[in-house]
Amino acid sequence: MSFSSLLLQQTINGMSLGAMYALLALGFTLIYGILELINFAHFNVFMMGSFLALWVLQGFGLTGQTVILTGLPLIGVLVAALIVTMFGTGVLGVVIERVTLRPLRGITGPAAMITTIGVSYVLFNIILLLTSAQTLNFPNPLPQLQWQVHGAIVTLPEVLIWLVAPLLMTGLWAFVQKSRLGKAMRATAQDPEAARMMGVEVDKVIMTAFFLGSALAGAGGMIFGLYYNFTSFLIGFTAGLRAFTAAVLGGIGNVPGAMVGGFAIGLIEAYSGQFIATEWSDVIIFSILVLVLVFRPAGLFGRLAPSKS
Amino acid sequence: MLLEFKDIDTYYGDLHVLKQVNYEIGQGEIVCLLGGNACGKSTTMKTIMGVVRPVRGSVIFDGKPIEKLPTAERVKRGIAPVLEARRLFARMTVFENLEMGAYLRARGPEFEQDLERVYSLFPRVKERRSQIAGTLSGGEQQMVAMGRALMARPRLLCMDEPSMGLSPLYVEQVFDIIQEINRQGTTIFMVEQNANMALQIAHRAYVLQTGQVVLSGMAAELRVNPLIREAYLGEMQVPAPA
Hints:
The structure holds two protein chains of two kinds. By secondary structure, chain A is mainly alpha-helical. Helices cover about 70% and strands about 5% of the residues of chain A. In chain A, a hairpin with a 2-residue loop joins β2 (about 145-150) and β3.
């Protein structure tokens, strides 16, 4: 392969990974923007998403790569699995907030953040017990289609990722910018007390942020399964940490920043894996994060704000 | 009475902020609350909006107790705040800030009507409607903050330091507009450091000192009260030259 086709190939890979990280990073950023809380439960909400998708696809009678669907049945199965997964993880996020975080509202200090780490481990262990620590083959009903582009290969899952992820992100963007509740979310993020005095019910806004963020993580989890053809109780940590890095890189709290950060991390991972060595990927990702934060402490698109009292 | 405080006691932790406070604000009045720093003026506003809950006493709005109601319900019943230091949503546009003021109301002809009213009271706000609120000057931001509150179509407007940090020209404008809003039928309860201006437009006033009402009465009378003149209007008794 020539250098230019290698570069193109890794750009393709990086954009696919990046779309997944971006979906995941949005959840971190939405919740941080409103609560100034780093939600570590998000790591394993993503992991739960991949299992929900797996169970739904198995429910349609699909196992491994043995059943291949085409046309309408394929689209129907995938759309149904995506909707159930997103709704399921969205509800999971809302339940996590309602049960474990709302009682801690108003308590300053790291209590809420530590709680999210605890919740993350609970989810992790549930799946660990259910799967007996096995790595599971992810049902993939997609036909083995691929296309040659200037010496690089584009596969069908990648094309699907590029269709679905931007669609979800645009949907979120439109919701936050245009809808009444989305505007209330932005207002609450900027000045919670003032928003409350306009009549905004802050609890409802927080629930919405958890639902949307967790639903996008669920979509990310399903994409993970279809892209890598496996899932396991472990996948939350690596992907979650990289997506969190993406959110910080873009400027945590900033929605477009999380998307750009996600794609940036995906591309860095792909390029460094190809041109340096896979085992150096994380070193490079985190070095770049440190460098960016040294020169732009609020991230690429973030702004330093006085912390809310 | 549109709004009443009956023996209100408010605490921040152990700190007793409002002590047995009583206010009566009648329909159509402009009532001003005077007092030094940290005497409980902003706590009064927060108690009306339900951001701070009183430990004892009752807040009556339009004949009904509201002290247990959530903030959103109070906004729905017709109380809107103009917050201290404006507190606009700085990264949203001026128009979006106005929309937030009408958050609990449906879009429709009434919304458009109120928007027109705000635009005619504040032509500058109309000019700046698609600008990001944080980029406006202090005076313009105060206009947006007042417009935002009016978008709730309030019966009672609670204003916390509307003249703070404004140039004298804007202060004059703001007080003119407060009077105009009042003439159009909105009752106004206002906390203000600028006692001189406030007492010129207010009908009545209360003076708060370390959480207690120490003086109240008609604005015209308070303007000539020697205690007020000395403490709030900046007039020192100059001893006659020997």
